[in-house]
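User: I'm new to structure prediction. If I give you an amino acid sequence, what do you actually give back? Let's try with this one:
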Amino acid sequence: MNNKKIKLLQSAFLLLVLISCNSNQSSENNRIVIGIPADVQTFNTLFAFSYEESAITDLLYPGLLDFRWNDGKGELEAYPMIAKSWQWSADSSSLKFILRDDIKWSDGKNLTTDDVVFSYDLFSDPEVKSRLAGTFNYMFVDSMGQIDIQKTFVIISQNEFDINFPEKSFIDLNKVSIPVIPKHIFVGLNRNEISTSTINFSPVSCGPFKLKKWKKNQSIILEADSNSFLFNTAQTSEIIFKIIPDYTSRILQLKKGDIDLVELIKVEDIEDFKSLSNLSIFNNVGREYDYIGWNNIDPEEFSSGKVKPNKLFGNKNVRRALTIAINRKEILSEYLLNKGTLASTPVSPIFKSFFDENLKPYEYNPDEAKTILAGEGWKDVDKNGILENGKTEFRFTLYYPVGNPLREFASVVVKNNLQAIGIEVTLEKMEMGTFIDYLYERKLDSWMAGWGIPIPLELKPYWYSDPNIGVLNFACYGSSEADSVLNQLDSKIINEQKIILIRKFQTIIHQDEPVSFLYWTPNIIVYNHRIKNINITPYGVLAHCWEWILNE
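Assistant: Good question. You get back a string of structure tokens that encode the predicted 3D arrangement of the chain. For your 552 residues, that looks like this:
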């Protein structure tokens, strides 16, 4: 072989190497890496119970409609997604959906109305035990909460169907719009075995991304699906969820540029990030609040089927005094560095139309707290430093789950504050699983925990007196006035009436103080500047992340 041919071959080889290197570099530069603390247990949207599972499956299985947060109004607005249009009947008793006709599953099959109706059936089936089970009461359902398909749906064509609703049902588009799953994949499975099926780890999807690779306890790689109706050529080619359980390791990798985005940054780390010019900081407040739960009824009597007021916490004035006796501002300033805000009711300030800014959080005032308690018969008659009412001394155990430094800090503040007014508090940590079981069984007298706020606003499961409806009403709060308002919110009303009712509900809760509302806690997000077109709202960090683009 002559020298000329050798040089040509060498040049060709070098060119191939350069192209390969540039291709790999381009691929690496066109991916976003997100640090998460825990792996997922499923890629099936039916069972996406954790935050990480929900965020990832939302990218695989879009809903009928798209929702975007309107910050000016403090509410969600509906836009087309799988459904290109929808229309209410004249009397609002039915809703017509017309689907796009260009949506394909990742295995090439068309998405049709059969998939949509099948999804409703599967989500509502009690045998499946999906994350939405029991939430379809606004439709025609049987005694077990499963949707009556024949009464509810009218399939007109492959791309058009109607949903019929019972008379006087309150219909929220956000509830109606569930994720759609492929019927041809799940129809042959036993429904009580779907949750454990291996098919949950090989998703056939139709979202902007599809699952490329899952390395258990290491990473989840989603790649852009070029056949998706949501695909756009500017979007990032891959989103990688890197599983890093250790918080310090996540922070170090974020600073080094190995990962691009991390949520739940500790407030004490904010100053360090401010000095790094390649990172942006966003404080998302208003989706979670911490509270101290006071069991309004006697848990021992409840276990035997009786309902009697709790001897310590059954009186609303006593509960209000407890809140007034706690220096919540100290916790905000000392631990949260004033990155959160005090809470007064379960309605978040993010809901600007509904939030009643005239209801101010109770101010810390131990002298006023003692006066209120004395008026209810709680006095230190025997001068032993502990208040008593008759033969009952004011002492109790405050439980909280392990693994939350904020609540550990706050519990000590609460203990010291209440001790200062004559109440003895014993602090006790509890393993999370046991803690949750005890809450559902209504076994605890008092506890410290937190709630995430659903969007759109949902109040009835948390505050309704009937435990079959108020399944999350762990404080066993009972108010006929509050129940009446919550029932009216479930009826067909115009938005102006809804605003009035939710503000009335806030007034009732503020007066009754069923729990001590502490503060709205911050979710601090830090992300790399190379991510452009990112729009973080209370609706979620990863919502519409297929619209993110990378700065080259």
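You can read the tokens as a compact description of the fold. Here is one thing that stands out. The chain has a mean pLDDT of 93.
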